[in-house]
Design brief:
By secondary structure, this protein is α+β, with helices and mostly antiparallel strands. 28% of the residues lie in helices and 36% in strands. It has a 5-stranded antiparallel β-sheet. The two termini are 13 Å apart. 28% of the residues are buried. The N terminus is likely disordered.
Length: 143
């Protein structure tokens, strides 16, 4: 199937904007994300240790951020889509009491292959930037 056919059937084209997603950053999200990803570094679940290390509070680990990027793009792309690769870079730290706002733009479409640029920003600036490679089958097809 050609790029034009898939893009026309799915309504996805380079430049398509993903809807914004706002995620409250809570201590519970940070701690449960660290535990779920088996990251037992105390700076992710013990405020006293985090403060002693020079930060104002516990902070989000990269694996939780990666999962939130996957959630953001996956919810937009739908259940038939398959994530091929996530490439991210961390910036400003996510602390409890803040909010991360995800935005995204389709960078390219090649048949069923879609690349999305993603940014997750908090009050300190961009927390995460990166790209997500997806396979999004046209209607009636599976990945």
């Amino acid at each position: 199937m050609s790029t034009v056919d898939t893009a026309a059937r799915t309504g996805i084209a380079a430049g398509t904007q993903l809807p914004e997603l706002r995620i409250p950053i809570t201590a519970t999200l940070i701690v449960t994300g660290a535990i779920a990803t088996r990251d037992f570094q105390k700076v992710h679940h013990d405020k006293d240790v985090a403060v002693a290390a020079g930060t104002p509070n516990v902070f989000m680990n990269i694996l939780t951020t990666n999962a939130l990027v996957n959630r953001y793009v996956g919810e937009w792309a739908g259940p038939a889509a398959r994530v091929g690769r996530i490439s991210i870079r961390l910036g400003a730290t996510n602390f409890p009491g803040d909010e991360m706002v995800f935005t995204g733009t389709v960078d390219s479409v090649d048949g069923q292959n879609v690349v999305v640029k993603v940014v997750g920003t908090n009050s300190l600036g961009p927390h995460v930037t990166g790209t997500v490679d997806l396979v999004i089958p046209s209607k009636g097809e599976s990945a």
